[in-house]
Known about the structure:
Blueprint (H helix, E strand, L loop, with lengths): L1 H21 L11 H14 L5 H4 E9 L4 E4 H10 L8 E10 L2 E9 L4 E11 L2 E10 L2
Parallel strand pairs: 1-6
Antiparallel strand pairs: 1-2, 3-4, 4-5, 5-6
Amino acid sequence: MKTTITTIATAFIMMTSFCSYAAEKVNPLKDLNSVNIIRTYLEAATAGSITFNKFLFSEDFEYQNTANNLRYNKKTYTNFLKTNKGLKFNCETTYEMLDECGKACVAKAIMKFDNFTRVDYITLNHSRDGWKVSKVVTTYP
C-alpha cells in the first residue's frame, strides 16, 4: 500500500513539474488594440508602473532622446523604468493617434510639466504577439 501511494505521489509530482516547464508565459497584452498599448506605455513612463514592461516592448526596441541624442535599447530602458518604479510624474498627459495602417502605428504623447513640455513619438508594430512598442523618440519643443 505504501509503495502504491508513493508511486502515485511521485507520478503526480513529475506531471506537475513537466506542466510548469512546458507552459509558456501568457502575454496579457497580446489581444489589446494599439490605443490600449499606448495607454500602457504612458502608465509605465509617467506613473511608474512596470507590470507589463516585459510584454510591452519589442525585442529591437529603441529609445532616443533628442535633447542629448542618446539612444537606449530595450534592456537599458526597462532597467531605467524599473529603477523609477512607483515614481509618478507631476504632469498633464495627453496622446493622439497620428496614423495606424495595417501593422504599423504612430502616436504622439504630450506631457505638460510646470516649466517644460515633453513630447514622445511612439512607433508600434503588430506581430503574432500583438502590438509592441518598437521605438520612442522624445523631444522637448
